[in-house]
């Protein structure tokens, strides 16, 4: 589909902020990329394709995201690993006015403090984002993970 | 080289469709990204650099691609793994009128149904694509794989 | 931050050249992406976050980069592995006139001549680049590697 250049750029930049916010352990900045009325979910691809309702993590508004990051900060006094996201190009699937829908594939690597890196998860983000006056913010992010993941309250977002 | 913004965007979007078509197992959609007179090849980088002619897979028109996908559908009733492509930025190398040439690096991960993901292949696409009236279609895709690959009639495209 | 479309494209294209110059073993072309007065450094993320001064490799002008590539050519008559970089989208962090600052996440895979590929390093580039009259060149590249790396005079750049 045809997408205006400024929209494509604003949303590509938004996803770069998303990834680097997590990778830099600036989770509070990451939360600020979301709209107050937002939805963040982590699901397994297998469940999505079988229409099973299991979700590994679900925050259905921004305060829940804030709480989650705050809990994470209290439990993890030290960062136990480094995250590194590498994202592919955006694939736009539609829009309702200023609300744009797109998918982005991700690879996520983790590095332990000893310096060994490994593939942690691959999958895609299914995103809905608002672009108004050139500013972009996330309305809905569904992480659809190909890789099997263990639900954990202590984990950083994906 | 200088490439008009709309061309760069149309071709970046085309490669996002390419990757997600395979990753979603929408291989019929993937075929539709190609022109009727097209060429799709998978070769090993080692052979390319030594000017050896071995190809692991070759379809020199769109009907061959259609046949290949149909064969794959008959043999594989169930999808045995998930593919996940993460592509880098396009590097343009030239053009003849509306026919653009570029290279794109890829990483391709596979996830088994038990949920374990692994690196399957890395390499580059060498692409020729037509952009006319804002619509882009693939004329030629050569997958130059760094990773050693075993030729297989049953495999999904890369 | 807002970045003009032509700047974003010129710098995305510059990083594609950077990555493919190394991956194609065109290291002399890679050097030519830098300004004469330039700086190239490889550091560990752990050291950066602890403000430790260790650097694994440092060239503080273009002639040092040229020397380094020439040394590499004399020692390595044959290429012992293939590199493959997959880069994510650019995250712009500021600019002084025509000097733009941005970060880019990378994944770097290496393939041995037998054809086995593995994850070699992940991390980010912290870049300063000049864009004048549509031409972009690198002023400063700091590779901040998440993955532990062993300093080596014989290694290709990252």
In short:
Three copies of one chain form a homotrimer. Chain A has helices at residues 5-23, 27-31, 45-49, 62-75, and strands at residues 34-44, 57-59, 81-87, 91-96, 99-112, 117-132, 135-145. By secondary structure, chain A is of the alpha+beta class.
Could you explain how this protein is built, in words?
The structure is a homotrimer of 158-residue chains. By secondary structure, chain A is of the alpha+beta class. Helix content of chain A is 27%, strand content 43%. Chain A contains four helices and seven strands; from the N terminus they run ααβαβαβββββ. The first copy, chain A, has helices at residues 5-23, 27-31, 45-49, 62-75; strands spanning 34-44, 57-59, 81-87, 91-96, 99-112, 117-132, 135-145. In chain A, strands 1, 2, 3, 4, 5, 6 and 7 form a seven-stranded mixed β-sheet that branches. The longest helix of chain A is centred in the first third of the chain and has 19 residues, at 5-23. Chain A is globular, with a radius of gyration of 15 Å. Chain A starts with a helix and ends in a 13-residue tail after the last strand. The interface between A and B is medium-sized, with 27 and 27 residues.
């Amino acid at each position: 589909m045809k997408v205006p250049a400024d929209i494509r750029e604003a949303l590509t930049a938004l996803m770069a902020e998303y990834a680097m916010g997590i990778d830099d352990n600036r989770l509070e900045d990451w939360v600020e990329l979301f709209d107050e009325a937002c939805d963040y979910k982590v699901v397994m691809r297998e469940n999505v394709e079988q229409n099973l309702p299991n979700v590994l993590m679900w925050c259905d508004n921004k305060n829940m995201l804030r709480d989650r990051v705050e809990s994470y900060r209290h439990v993890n006094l030290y960062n136990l690993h480094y995250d590194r996201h590498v994202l592919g190009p955006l694939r736009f699937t539609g829009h309702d006015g200023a609300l744009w829908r797109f998918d982005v594939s991700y690879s996520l690597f983790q590095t332990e403090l000893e310096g060994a890196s490994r593939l942690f998860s691959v999958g895609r983000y299914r995103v809905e984002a608002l672009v108004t006056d050139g500013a972009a913010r996330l309305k809905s992010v569904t992480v659809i993970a190909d890789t099997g993941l263990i639900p954990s309250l202590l984990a950083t977002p994906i």
